[in-house]
Amino acid sequence: MQTLGRAMRMEAREAAPPAGAGGWSKWVRLNVGGTVFLTTRQTLCREQKSFLSRLCQGEELQSDRDETGAYLIDRDPTYFGPILNFLRHGKLVLDKDMAEEGVLEEAEFYNIGPLIRIIKDRMEEKDYTVTQVPPKHVYRVLQCQEEELTQMVSTMSDGWRFEQLVSIGSSYNYGSEDQAEFLCVVSKELYTSPHGLSSESSRKTKLLQARGTRM
């Protein structure tokens, strides 16, 4: 036990900043769930309304101290690291196995508004990706005459594409010339989300749908 205590004291001395680095008053020790974090008052005061800012500014928050003078905070130290780093450089960096829900819970406890918004945005993006429905193939059969093919090609947009062109003979006579008729099969992929279709039919798409009703 004596050897362990001596090793812990040596580790604490190695982690402490040198006496000439601006004085001890600018450094703050936090004992979060048994793990000691060393940072500056400037970092903790980055978010003025946060629990940590109020703590290092001397407000009475009923926080005890351990034998080394570190503030005792009864929270999970696993998620405190990303929170402290966010206060240091303004970025959320998480290990791949770290649950965002855990960091969000701690960010809400410490009342760090910008971090809360970032995590919620990330979680909403993941939820959208997971719940997004695979694309649905929609097919339309359009009836047209030979002279209308060029016009129909010009209206093919918004993701519609040709699948098949089938000749159905000549049904119309204009003067002495027969007009060949075709069935044109077109398709489109529609991506859906929990809130409905990702995009609405445009004017040109509606034109294609209207032409399909001629059958």
UniProtKB/TrEMBL annotation:
Question: SMART domains from the xrefs?
Answer: BTB (SM00225)
Source species:
Lipotes vexillifer (Yangtze river dolphin)
Q: Name one GO cellular component term.
A: Cul3-RING ubiquitin ligase complex
InterPro entries with a match to the protein in the record: BTB/POZ_dom, SKP1/BTB/POZ_sf, T1-type_BTB
Gene from which this protein is expressed: KCTD17
Sorted alphabetically, the Gene Ontology BP terms of this entry are: positive regulation of cilium assembly; proteasome-mediated ubiquitin-dependent protein catabolic process; protein homooligomerization
What the entry lists under Pfam families is as follows:
BTB_2
GO MF terms held by the record: cullin family protein binding
Q: What residue spans carry the region label Disordered?
A: 193-215
What is the designated name of this protein? BTB/POZ domain-containing protein KCTD17 isoform X4
Which ranges carry the BTB domain? 26-127
SUPFAM superfamilies, per the entry: POZ domain (SSF54695)
